[in-house]
Amino acid sequence: MTREARGPKEGDFITIKSYKHDGSLHRTWRDTMVLKTSENALIGVNDHTLVTEDDGRRWVTREPAIVYFHKHYWFNIVAMIRDNGVSYYCNLASPYVLDKEALKYIDYDLDVKVFPDGEKRLLDVDEYEDFSQRWQYGEATDRILKANVLTLVDWINHHKGPFSQAYVDLWYQRYQELLRRSNDQ
């Protein structure tokens, strides 16, 4: 079995590409370190990762962030590890696909931000409405996304998965171990 058939393994670096519903490239993250892959999920970390916007602007992420992608849920989660605690940025998005080029998903504009004190904010509702009409997301997509917002809020409220401090600590510690190991070689 080739590496592509197996997918990336712990410590490998991948590219992440988000697209808009019309197929246009939205944003690219270069060199996300893979921490774990399973049949349905991928966990990685961005730390001073180069990000390229659709208009060519480039910037580098400021702090380490654990990223969580799932093949069945219509969201992905970014846990940003900051001095004042963990902040979350959750993208309502299609389940991911992974090919030899990149991990890919469609960004559906709606986002949920969770602050270290637990405050939640639904962001970009106007943008979602505009793009929904422009690209005709359709009732089925709208229903799926709204159901996934409810699932996401339930995860947040119950500190499930990436919203658990133990989860963030575990994967950040694993990332640090992998960094030390690569620096020792």
Automatic annotation (TrEMBL):
One of its GO terms (molecular function) is hydrolase activity. The keyword Ribonucleoprotein does not apply. It holds the Pfam family DUF402. Residues 22-160 form the DUF402 domain. Transmembrane segments: none annotated. Keywords: Hydrolase, Magnesium, Metal-binding. It comes from the Bacteria. This is DUF402 domain-containing protein. It comes from Levilactobacillus suantsaiihabitans.
